[in-house]
Amino acid sequence: MSLLVLLLACGTPLDPALDDTAAADDTAAADDTAAADTDTDDTGPVDPGDDEDFLFADDILAFALTLDEAALTALAADPKTDVHATLTYAGESYEVGLHLKGNNGSFRDMSEKAAFKIDFHQWDDAQRFHGLKRLTFNNMVQDASMSSEHAAYRLYGELGLVTPRHGYAQITVNGELYGLYGVVETLDIEFIERWFEGDDGGNLYEGGYGADIMDGRDDNFELKVDGEPTDRSDIVALINATDASTTADHLDVLDARFTGADALLDLWAAELATGNDDAYSTLANNFLVYHAPGADRWTMIPWGPDQAFRTRYDGTEPSVREDLYGELAIRCRAAPACAARFDERLEHVLAVWESSDLAGYVDTETARIEDACREDPRSPWGDYGCRDALAAIRTWARARPDAVRAQIAGE
What we know:
Elements: H1 3-9, E1 60-66, H2 69-77, E2 83-89, E3 92-101, E4 115-119, E5 134-138, H3 148-158, E6 166-173, E7 176-184, H4 189-195, E8 204-207, E9 222-223, H5 233-243, H6 250-257, H7 261-273, H8 280-283, E10 287-292, E11 297-302, H9 327-334, H10 336-355, H11 358-374, H12 382-409
Parallel strand pairs: 1-6
Antiparallel strand pairs: 1-2, 2-3, 3-4, 4-5, 5-7, 6-7, 8-9, 8-10, 10-11
């Protein structure tokens, strides 16, 4: 494969208008490996029963959005304002709040492939969609394969990490097909209740550019559940404790303050192994932290790994040694005991990658969405861009564990 084709396959923009794809997606999630026919004639409703799991299973769901002229005009003036819309699924219609999602590289307006945040309780506080208050539809415009998030969340799940679920949908707006979307579990109170049952009354903070677990950065964290915290002393205490750690006890402090150091290091190791250059460990971006008040422990939660599973834009392989950026990860690598544990967890991630047959999962899932990806009418990549990117991610997922081991051996 030529370098040009490889770069296209891995998501490098050839249109100058897309040159900002390395910029952050808003800090704005894959289950069975059974293949499904992705011909759009077979895409449609699935009987959901009473459980929202159907959103993240192995079907491409069909959603229809209807917006009137007043809503479209309001979104043109302010894409982040909540407007009235109707969302229809399987014959059920819901009056919802809607605003556009994304910033920098990921944002598209309604004339292109807009991404959507859907709020079911915007106008009716009691309304839910099979138990959910919100849905997030990612436009996946920064990933020509439309598969990176799906695969990354699968690996995080296999590692037992707290992570969003992810599925696929095709969306029409006022009868017009907008294309294939990622359905990612919204990180809200329902998410926290599912993962931290019995200890779900704490603060969930979003981190992103400018936010890190270090002195002077606590004001850059944004609360992600309803309301504003009147007391942010928990995030301040975490920063103070980690700032006070030394090279001798940094690992112990992480172990005491988080839900075990291994889970934290597994996340960072997975970010590095998947080549995600837009994550906490590599850019201090696209992460959240939740404080479980009863246990007085923190959990770091990944978000938006659409830059994973790809060669760098310059054609080189992402490094698992040189790409650290998040303050806690940098300090871990500088502390001998923490660095040794970090290496152990990286080996563990590679072992889980292979034992769970992540490459086989990528093969199956990319085959499942290929038709919808290649036929997406609003994708900036087009038919051949999608085709080449799908081929590249399949190859990359199979070759990456050995490539990482070669990097480590070559030190």
